[in-house]
């Protein structure tokens, strides 16, 4: 796939976890918690024209940020962890790999069972 893709996560632990699973070079940036529309625009300015993927926690904070993304960047693709795991950081690697594979990312085979 030739178009550049960006995954947005909440924190560094989420980013580290996804990087371990991905079998391709994908830019991953962190919101580091709650963001405003201005901060979000500033954060994403260098990635204008990229295909955005939003992968946030299944909790109140994650849903608040997700709602902001839906409003400000309606073309972004939203990836969801299962509510039982609540956070990307605590979601098992195999589950994350399946979610990423479903979004057409290349994942390391050892994480697919």
TrEMBL record:
One of its GO terms (molecular function) is ribonuclease M5 activity. It holds the Pfam family Toprim. GO terms for biological process: rRNA processing. SMART domains: TOPRIM. Residues 4-92 form the Toprim domain. SUPFAM superfamilies: Toprim domain (SSF110455). It comes from the Bacteria. This is Toprim domain protein.
């Amino acid at each position: 796939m030739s178009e550049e893709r960006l995954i947005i996560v909440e924190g560094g632990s989420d980013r580290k976890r996804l990087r371990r699973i991905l079998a391709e070079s994908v830019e991953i940036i962190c919101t580091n918690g709650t963001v405003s529309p201005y901060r979000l625009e500033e954060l994403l300015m260098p990635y204008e024209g990229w295909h955005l993927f939003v992968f946030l926690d299944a909790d109140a904070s994650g849903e608040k940020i997700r709602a902001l993304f839906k409003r400000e960047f309606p073309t972004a693709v939203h990836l969801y962890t299962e509510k039982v795991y609540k956070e990307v950081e605590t979601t098992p690697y195999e589950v994350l790999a399946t979610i990423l594979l479903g979004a057409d990312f290349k994942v390391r085979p050892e994480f697919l069972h």
